[in-house]
Fold these 2 entries.
Entry 1:
Amino acid sequence: MRPMATHEKPADRGTRRAAIALATLGAEFRTARTDRGLSLRDVGAALGVSHVAAGRVERGLVPGVGLTMLTRYAEVVGLELSVRAYAGGAPLRDTAHVALLADFRAHLSPRLGWATEVPFPTPGDPRAWDALIRGGGWLYGVEAETAPRDAQALGRRMSTKLRDGNVDGLLLVLPSTRRTREFLAAGEAHLAPLFPVPGGRALALLKAGLDPGGNSMIVLPRTRPSIRGTGSSEMAALRVSER
């Protein structure tokens, strides 16, 4: 049975990754310095710090060292420091995101297992599922998007998470807002192939404690359980039933 562990907090993950990066960078500084025949006193004098302080930077022992110092250190030993940011693990979630997940969970059968911020199974992968739903022999990843913007980018991100997340399917939960309606009007065609199961059908099965039947995109109002799936015929049926 797949584990449903808790996920490392974003700030704690950042602290851990920073320590690793500083240690790695310091080792590169030391190699470059010794290759060029420079002593710690030489480097310290060039930087305006003591040789002890320079040595601590090389050993990754200055957690609060600034980017300016690291860049200057690199230049002194003949290196060029380049810094970029890449898409990584799960970010800090706001109250709207937490509320959307809570609303979605309220629609599910109490027989289903539920866990939030579950890390991916591959060691070292910083990504996490917003939530996992476990049923009898099946496991689905849940991703909640409160303010969707780029359908193609979202589709690519969902596809890679589905590929690497060791789950049987993916449920994308969206709030019923004007922004969501505009987002789907412009980009639903890009997402529909990835989410073939209509949202209403998937939610009805989950409410009964059953496998939702595949990937599904669910637009979830907070006031009442009305669902927008990818199937237009189902939408028409829902409108008729609500009259």
Note: The CA atoms of residues 26 and 57 lie 6 Å apart.
Entry 2:
Amino acid sequence: MKDLVFDPVEHKYYYRGKPVPGVNECLRDAKITKEYEGDPYFTERGRAVHLAIQYYLKGTLDEETLDDQIKPQFAAFRKFWDSLSTDERIISFIEEPFTDGVFAGTPDAVTGSTIYDWKCVKKHKKEDELKGQGYKKLLAMCGLNKRNFVIVELHDDGTYEAIDYGSDFDAWDSVLKIREWHNTPNSKRAKKCGMKQP
């Protein structure tokens, strides 16, 4: 998008030169999620899988170069992707950042009817649905039609599970309000009451 800059190293968004929070940052600021503190191996593996999928969808992946440690997840992705109709496999956006000027986000992949989020886990977290609501809100406010949010779990055994959360995003405004509440100092909200002591 014009005037939107994403810094992949710091994972920060800037719109017209000013920082705007990302979807994940909004969820962390609202205390709904927290910074991942698990094994960095799984973080790096997830990034590698996402990158392989991104290259595949852009038609630039050499599958011979895939590391053995991500082949099961990539095989799971291929099984899922190949199961879709030809129309559903027409990509609108791949890892494209969006913003409405208030917050920003980068969906993994967007087709004409669906926003896809790839997960290298057997059971994703419930709050991931809210992440999808943020993406849906962004695309809708940027003039794109309503799209379903689908999380695709890519398992270690080469299988997958796809979970469709529909197209509603009615809870996202609440996330932004809770984030604002957490980020507002108490002194700006609270007023002291009672009589002064003599």
Note: The chain has a mean pLDDT of 91.
